[in-house]
Amino acid sequence: MNIKLTVYLTAVLALAVVAVIFIINPRHKAEEQLQSKQVFRIHHPGPARAVTLKNGNGDFSLIRNAQGKWMIAAPVATRADQTVVTALLTAMTTLRYQTMIGAGALSAFGLSPASITATVAFPDETAYRLQIGAEAPLGKNYYAVASDGTRGIFTVTSWLRSQLDDTLFQLRDKAPVSLSQEEITAIGFTSSAKPVYTLQRKDGVWYITKPSLNRVRPSVINGMVFQLANLRATNILDGVSDLSGMGLEKPSEVISIVLMDGKHDTITIGKNADPSHAYAMVKGKQPVYVINADFVAAMKRNVSEMVDTRLMSQDSFAVSSVTVVRDGKTVLLTKKSNNTWEKDGAPFTGSGAVNDLVGELSSMKAVRFTAPQSPFGKAAITFTVSGSVQPAVTTIAISPVIAGTAYARTSIDPRRAVIAPGDVRKLEADVQKIFQ
User: Fold this and answer.
1) What is the pLDDT of residue 35?
2) What is the DSSP-derived secondary structure letter of residue 74?
3) Can you say whether residue 19 is alpha, beta or left, with left for phi > 0 and alpha for psi between -120 and 50 degrees?
4) For position 45, what pLDDT does the model report?
5) Phi, psi at residue 2, to the nearest 5°?
6) How many angstroms separate the CA atoms of 47 and 70, rounded?
7) How far apart are alpha carbons 420 and 195 in whole angstroms?
8) Rounded average pLDDT over 215-235
9) Pairing relation of β-strands 70-74 and 58-64?
């Protein structure tokens, strides 16, 4: 092949590739255009350390503490809403303008003075400031200028302006207490200065310790700890001097919370702010919180409705395996799907009997409980149930039916359970099918 022709064709092909990438390819042009419209070119090794915001709602100063959490320093010292501040930072640091206006008198665009000024500062003392002025006549955009960024006057979206037009309430943490469901280890409730109940978690099981020992129904305690961990104020009142007018000088209800690290929080409930909300405070903190009355109703429970009399806390759908011991023989049942079980590692045709057994074990209730030292004798059948819900493993030992009475020992309750003879016979029938 002619060498000159080869070189010529190669050059033409290279030019064609360049044309596709840089001229024809609209995606490349779009990306280049977006980059050219970026307001701030921020390149820092560490995260932002401070944010100041001035808008029609006030002047706000936020700092990042040593733990990396955002705090409001002014006008009040309090925790910031981490999600809101992160969104604000993202909006600032990734900001792209809509239209470039160029030079002009700032006052003509509502920028002297500006209606909103936001500044983000970094550890090296570099700061990036954005000022937003009047609304542009078309497109629901606003005029803006930046320091340490794009020169001249440009427009930004109304969405960005709304991001920077937060109130103190929007910026601050709305949770009266900062905790997670997993951290809560004890809950106490007092109403009209009288103790109603004390609950405590041990080895994944929640117990009523006062007024008397009982286990708490999982659905009840799960709802309570969810309410505590997700409690959010609908309004926060600073500088309240007359607590008696809100019923907080002598609160009607007091909720005590103990966490895994030993930390204590106490929430006091006052009068209703309106039919759907109540006043509340946290001991040692100044603000008055307005909270949903549903929270108070969730915590103000009748003790008798909280008691769990079942032999195990796991529901049937959460059970993954059952070990059955009878007459010195052991069988391991392992769930493979909702209706399929293996017996000692091999497919089992009697999965229906296993489902019946698991259903009966998970729903079986004690007729009553007796003292731990109550007579029991040798267990006729022992079940070790494993699952995905705490406690992960529960052991249940069933006594023979003697003189019309049967007992059960369970690893989640120190007491002996008196159980109905008919329930024992159902278990025995299912076990018989499994051992065949």
Assistant:
1) 59
2) E
3) alpha
4) 65
5) -60, 130
6) 11
7) 34
8) 95
9) antiparallel
Q: At which residue do the structure tokens 């529901």 appear?
A: 315
pLDDT single digits (tens) 33-66:
545 799 998 877 679 999 999 999 999 999 999 9
Distance CA 435, CA 117 (A): 76
Note whether 365 and 311 are within 8 A (CB).
yes
- Give the C-alpha separation, 133 to 117, whole Å: 9
- Separation of CA 403 from chain center: 51
CA–chain centroid gap for 294, Å, is 18
Burial of 207-225, coded b for 16+ CB within 10 Å and e otherwise, reads bbeeeeebbbbbebbeebb
Which contacts (CB < 8 Å, 24+ apart) does range 340-344 have? Answer: 343/434
- 74-102 per-position pLDDT tens digit: 999 999 999 999 999 999 999 999 999 99
Give the pLDDT of residue 81: 97
Compute the CA torsion angle 413, 414, 416, 419 (nearest 10 deg): 0
The pair of structure tokens assigned to 101 is 């206006």
Residues 12 and 50 sit within 8 Å (Cβ to Cβ): no
Find all residues with CB under 8 Å of 43, minimum gap 6, and list them: none
Q: Which two tokens stand for residue 42?
A: 């921020």
* Tokens representing residue 271 in the block: 């009068």
347: Cα within 13 Å, side-chain hemisphere: 4
Helices and strands, counts by H and E, the chain: 10, 28
For 128-147, the pLDDT digits (tens) are 999 999 999 987 899 999 99
DSSP string, 211-265: SS-EEEPHHHHHHHHHHHHT---SEEE-S----GGGT-SS-SEEEEEEETTS-EE
Instruction: Give the whole-angstrom CA distance, residue 217 versus residue 309.
Output: 8
The pLDDT, as a whole number, for residue 28 is 45
pLDDT, residue 19, reads 44
Place of tokens 């955002």: 70
Rounded Cα distance between 392 and 181, Å, is 17
Is the confidence at residue 2, as pLDDT, over 70?
Answer: no
What is the DSSP code string of 338-393?
TTEEEETTEE-TTHHHHHHHHHHHHH-B-SEEE-TTS---S-SEEEEEEESSSSSE
Average pLDDT value for residue range 22-33 = 46
Residue 417 pLDDT level (bands cut at 50, 70, 90): very high
